Amino acid sequence: MAGTVVIKWGGGLITHKDQLCTVNLDVIRSLAEVCSKTSKKLVIVHGAGSFGHLKAKKFRLTEGRIPELNQDSAVMDVRNDMLELNSVVVRELRSFGLDVQSYSPHQWAKGTGAEFRGELPLHHGVTVVYGDVVDDEIKEFGILSGDDLMLRYSTEIADVERAVFAIGGVDGILRVPPSKAGPEDLIEIWTPDMSFEGEHSTEIDVTGGIGLKAARGAMIAAKGIDVVLINGEIPERVLDAIEGKSVIGTRIESGNC
Ligand code: IP8
Questions:
Q1: For the chain, which has fewer Cβ within 10 Å, the N-terminal or C-terminal residue?
Q2: Using a 6 Å cutoff on CB, does residue 154 contact ligand 1?
């Protein structure tokens, strides 16, 4: 039987990141089509992009409850916005005939970061989860990143063959910021002792951008799971990465840590 591949659809890939709650439907459709072409069992983790980060940033939701801010409606809004993005992802996957079940983290996960609590839900077909606003025992609520879901799914469920991070706009981890990079700046094999100058739009992102992906990727690789980071805008690369074929992108290794 085919093994499982855990794949992240980055939020910057599937949404227009600077326009509030705007999906990139062409990309979602092309990713959904790719997913219908593999016999691997899939767990899809999608990011938030403009459906999560902008409002979460404005109302400082990563910090948890701040009494002087009125955050309750923002918590509800971001959860609802994420449900809307998730419904597009699920609809497009189903339109290619896939048997999909999605599980909203605010209903089953508690706490944020790599150590969040909750039993990982799994469907016998395609499982979908996503970065979300979750309850937190200390902060009351917080932002659980899809990158932490990637870590836990890739290392805790059975038969995982590899983890794939599909991101937007770049071919992998680059030595210099994307705006200054040429093809020679792609890091083909990355280990945590290597530095890179990823562009992280802290004015938009509330989670860790490419740095968090690299860090979580290394933690996954440390458990013996192959990890690759690829440009999700190129469908052939996404399929090759899922199938474990050689592909343009960055392989993440754990190094000596
Ligand atoms: O885009 C963030 O998830 P990520 C989730 O996977 C929210 O880091 C709601 C901002």
A1: N
A2: no
Please state, in angstroms and rounded to a whole number, the distance separating the CA atoms of residues 251 and 221.
9
Question: Phi and psi at residue 247, in whole multiples of 5°?
Answer: -150, 150
Q: How far is the CA of 113 from the centre of ligand 1 (A)?
A: 11
φ, ψ (nearest 5 deg) of residue 40: -65, 150
Checking DSSP bridges between strand 140-144 and strand 4-9, what pairing results, if any? Answer: unpaired
Look at residue 46 and give its three-state secondary structure: strand
CB 164 within 8 A of CB 8: yes
State if pTM tops 0.70. Answer: yes
pLDDT (tens, 9 = 90+) of the chain, 257 residues, equals 589 999 999 999 999 988 999 999 999 999 999 999 999 999 999 999 999 999 999 999 999 999 999 999 999 999 999 999 999 999 999 999 999 999 999 999 999 999 999 999 999 999 999 999 999 999 999 999 999 999 999 999 999 999 999 999 999 999 988 888 888 999 999 999 998 877 666 666 888 788 999 999 999 999 999 999 999 999 999 999 999 999 999 999 987 65
Ligand 1 close to Cβ of residue 220 (< 6 A): no
Q: What is the CATH number of domain 4-252?
A: 3.40.1160.10
For 229, the token pair is 């980071």
Alpha-carbon distance of 86 to 15, in angstroms, equals 11
State both tokens at 122: 């799994």
Q: Which residues contact 54 (CB under 8 A, 6 or more apart)?
A: 20, 204
